[in-house]
Design a protein that fits this description.
Elements (H helix, E strand, L loop, with lengths): L3 E11 L4 E12 L2 E9 L8 H6 L5 H4 L5 H12 L4 E3 L2 H14 L9 E3 H8 L8 H7 L10 H19 L1 H8 L1
Parallel strand pairs: 1-4, 4-5
Antiparallel strand pairs: 1-2, 2-3
Pfam families: RNase_T
GO cellular component, one term: cytosol
InterPro entries: Ribonucl_H, RNaseH-like_sf, RNaseH_sf
Length: 178
């Protein structure tokens, strides 16, 4: 089994210069077991998108007002992940958010190795009608958690990758992600 950290962000607003992150959830997996997790709200130091707050993740400006900024928690993220690959479902947004926030706060970029469960699912299960993480969780008969809560989504993504490894084998997964 691959060891990894599953990551999920909840976003406040997509801006020209960066994507504002309002919540981060990470789930560490070692030997196929969920062993440790980390979650925090994030003060994006920008206006929040009312639609996302009201209808998607239910994180409001008052929730993040006194939360740490991305610049403050970046060292904690790096320490939690260590040398493990980051697993994300639909890596584009999270990767872009990391890059733009590091540039915005003048922080050093980390050379994370990314594994995208969305890409894996499309290659391993080409006939599925949908590929969102909740659909995959249902396909693999995993227990569902809250939707659009960063830690819950990270844990579900982690469980999806563990299920893929169990069904298809780590060697098959490793060949696809190289």
């Amino acid at each position: 089994m691959l060891d990894f950290v599953a990551l999920d962000f909840e976003f406040g607003l997509h801006m020209n210069d960066r994507i504002s992150i309002v919540e981060i959830g990470m789930q560490k997996v070692v030997g196929g077991k969920l062993v440790d997790n980390w979650q925090t709200l994030v003060n994006p130091e920008s206006k929040l998108d009312g639609y996302a707050s009201d209808n998607i993740h239910h994180i409001y400006a008052s929730d993040v007002l006194f939360a740490p900024t991305f610049a403050t928690i970046w060292p904690q993220i790096i320490a939690f992940v260590g040398d493990l690959p980051l697993v994300v479902h639909g890596v584009k947004n999270e990767q872009h958010a990391i890059i733009t926030n590091c540039h915005f706060y003048d922080l050093p970029l980390q050379a994370f190795k990314y594994i995208d469960t969305l890409t894996l699912a499309k290659k391993l299960l080409p006939d599925l009608p949908k590929y969102n993480v909740n659909y995959l969780a249902d396909y693999f008969k995993l227990p569902m958690t809250a939707d659009h809560a960063a830690l819950d989504d990270a844990q579900l993504t982690a469980q999806v990758l563990v299920a893929m490894q169990t069904k298809y084998g780590t060697d098959v997964i490793s060949k696809i992600i190289k």
